[in-house]
Amino acid sequence: MPSVSAAQALDPPSPAKAPDDQTETLIGRLHQAFDGVQDLRQRRAAFERLMASTPDPTRVQIRHVAANGVEADLIWPARLHHPIGKRAILYLHGGGFYSGSLRTHRNIAGSLAKAASADVLLIDYRLLPEHGFPAQIDDAVAAYRWLLASGYRPENVVVAGESVGGTLAIEVVLRQMRLKGPLPTAVVAMSPVTDFSATGPSVIANAGSDPFMGKAELELIRKAYAGGKSAVDPALSPLYADMTGFPPLLMQVGARETLLDDTLRLQDKARRAGVDVSVEVWPGMIHQWQIFPFWIDDARKSNAKVAEFAISHFADKPAQQ
Predict the structure, then answer these.
(1) Which of 67, 124, 130, 296 is deepest in the core (most CB within 10 A)?
(2) pLDDT tens, position by position, 255-311
């Protein structure tokens, strides 16, 4: 996928676009699952219940592994000609750092494995409130290094995630850069939180159109995750990091999201630092729509875009099907 110098909208990126039935049905499910639930552990349980009603992936094989001590599922396409161990996507799930699991994100991980003809390592990193910063980053870095130690070459590894998983995907690479370690061939951040100080105008402008992430949710996560650390610390908020030398980066964001400006502002900063950065703004989409490919047509399409991006950057391309 070619880089663009400005956000690439699939239609005009207006939050006012007429909602479709699929998105409105999803919003109804989210309200049913989360309205009135405030405690982090209760919210975690509510997300697990919601995702327990969703289908498991089909036509994939799954092996449970311990990736440098981090529980994980290694998922690959159930096709005899798939070369296991060739290409890998490290997938870091979203869920506010307090929720999400191997079960909740197995479908999107399986979808990416099939579409990219790659092995996907989906990890079960430590969660809030039991474990705060930097446990989540530590686990993600440990899993990335496990892939390299297992024989996957950096030029065949893509790091991806959605929501705070997208934040982690960026932070994994920033830490590797600080330590002068090997970098993945590319990074995908879907609707990442890049600014825990919540200064983007869309946090207010889109507050009424995105039920899955708002200023109150960001503040709740930041306090539990960061404790007394500054919200503008680059180790927390990638918007304030030096992006010079960062690998090719694809970001997706919904036009209705409160985090729209988190993506657009990071794009501007990355571009100024010379990063090959692409952004897709998806009309009518809300936060984390990508994890619902069984309910949302645009989730399937956006997952396909992620797979195309990964394939375009793998050193060893999959054989034509």
Answers:
(1) 67
(2) 999 999 999 999 999 999 999 999 999 999 999 999 999 999 999 999 999 999 999
Largest CA distance in the chain: 51
Residues 101/124, Cβ–Cβ less than 8 Å = yes
Confirm whether 287 is a catalytic residue: yes
Kindly name the residue from 82, 93, 105, 287 that is annotated as catalytic.
287
Q: Is 163 a catalytic residue?
A: yes
280 is a catalytic site residue: no
Q: What is the pLDDT of residues 191-216, one digit of tens each?
A: 999 999 999 999 999 998 887 788 88
pTM above 0.85, yes or no: yes
Separation of alpha carbons 257 and 238, rounded Å: 18
CA 160 to chain centre: 5
* Active-site annotation holder among 162, 171, 217, 257: 257
How far apart are alpha carbons 7 and 280 in whole angstroms? 6
Question: Looking at the DSSP assignment, which residues form a beta bridge with residue 186?
Answer: 158
Q: Which of 99, 163, 209, 278 is catalytic?
A: 163
